[in-house]
Amino acid sequence: MPTVLDDGWGLVDPQARTHEVHPVPAAPVGGSEAVTFPCLPAQPAPLSETMRFGPGVSPVPPAPPAPSRRLPSRIGWAVLGAVAAAVLSYLAGHPPWERTLSVARVNLSPSASAVRCGETVRVTATVLTNGAPGTLRYRWRRSHGSSSGLLEERLSTGQRSAALETTWSISGPGGFSPEVTLEVSDPQPQAASVSFAYACTA
Model-level pTM greater than 0.70? Predict the structure, then answer.
């Protein structure tokens, strides 16, 4: 039985039943044609940041952030260091005992408020200072015009007071109110006075 070569694809029996191939008609333009796409796997829902445990359990809120502690900047530390160094340097170069002596107050008190013929009264002065060392210069004056002249008292470091004394003996008949004055001339002028009674009938 003869064979026929069919387009080089192989040997075909001419008596074999042939199948006609009909072209698939094209879909009309503008019509409604259902198109089916391949099914894609379902994507899982995104997880929420709030976690739930069991039915009816309230959500657990996230923990609040820890408060931040702001530390001083480098400039702040530098300023504090400079101030501390300046204070220490000043204290090292100028200790308290090197301050200048100054008088705060002078108090006078007589040993008696009234004296009689020939008695002696003692007047005590308390000079309060700032505790610095130095020399106190002063004089006593009496109401009848006499003066002790310039006197000195040396004060040491930390000594905040100086006790000064003078006495006055009065005699003769009569009566009056003698007055004693302490005048401080150095380190700065200060003055205080006190009086008492004198009476003599002899």
Answer: no
